[in-house]
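So, read this over?
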Amino acid sequence: MRTHEHRGVTGFPGPRWALCLLPLLWACSNSEPGPPVTLTSVTPTTMSSSECVDVKVGLTGELPITLDYGTSTVTVDAASVREVFVGPQRFLPSSLQWTEGGFTLPLPAAMPEGKHDVRVLLSDGSTLLLPASFEVTAPIQLTGFTIDYVLDHYPDEPFTVVIRALGVDAGRFRGKVQLSSSHALLHPTQGATFQDGVLRQEVTLTGEPGNVFLQVMDCQGLQTQSNEFRLLAR
């Protein structure tokens, strides 16, 4: 008599799949451990207490893996990072953006001045540490921003906006700003990091033809707007 094999949600025959998977899981759980996870770098290493910046934390080694015997899965567990601290500022895994060689996190303004440890707490209970690796300096003096003259553009046509910090410390500004427009949909809404007080940001506008202007605001509330220009009809 011919029997029918039971197939699970994965589409593999249940008993045969289990027999094949168990040695694999045993081998994964009993293999030689990979290189230990270590913190390698923090970029940038400083910020002003009046800026909001993105900080990249470099990692090397192998993060712990998750073996799920119930669903027969073997995955690298990026969520094995339980918490990250930069000084007193705590970050949960949901706020981390994973990139090649580490992750990026958003540091807010008003961080305490001085040098701070960077700590990463893993789900296995271990802690990674880079002591005194990040420094918060005194506030920089900005008076606002200005936006270079913007020409007319077509909807969904990328163009570059040049934004400049103003004030005696303008050249030292490396923070971020929020971007918006008077009525069209602007993308992106968060600018990249300023370099020497200047941001050259590619943007697109989506909307009906008409007059429009751009708005910029940093995390301290300093803001400005561009000249009025036209979103052209195609």
